[in-house]
Every structure is written in C-alpha cells, then in structure tokens.
What does this fold into?
Amino acid sequence: MLWECGLADLVREDFYRLFEFGPTTSGHLLDAGCGTGVETRNLGRRMPGLGLHGVDISSVALTEAVNCAENDNVR
It folds into this structure.
C-alpha cells in the first residue's frame, strides 16, 4: 500500500537513517523476510561494502530474488 500511496521512498529513507546506514557502511546484514529482494537490492546498491543476505519462507519470492540479483554483495 505504501507504493500505491507514493510513500515507500519516504519510509525507505527513514529506515536507512534509523540504522545510520551510509555509503561506507561495512559488515553483514540479514534481511529476514526479504520477499523478492527489492529492499535487499536497494541496500546493496547504496552500500556496496555491506554484505547482504536475504532469506524468506516463500520459495517463489526467493526464486525471483535470486533471478534479479545484480550485486556481488547481495546473496
């Protein structure tokens, strides 16, 4: 629903500020419930030094996430 209202980008920016993620952030992050990996890929583009690992209960969503992977730091 956030996407439909045009508020998703605003919420995303607040989320990144909450954790103080920046372009030089390093380490590893688990995205539990990553779904299709949209946010995992967004984080991967913004923070190339952060190793991102996505998991989800849905094999259908994970298949899409794997097929759309675009960064070496996103698994």
Observations:
- The longest strand covers residues 27-32.
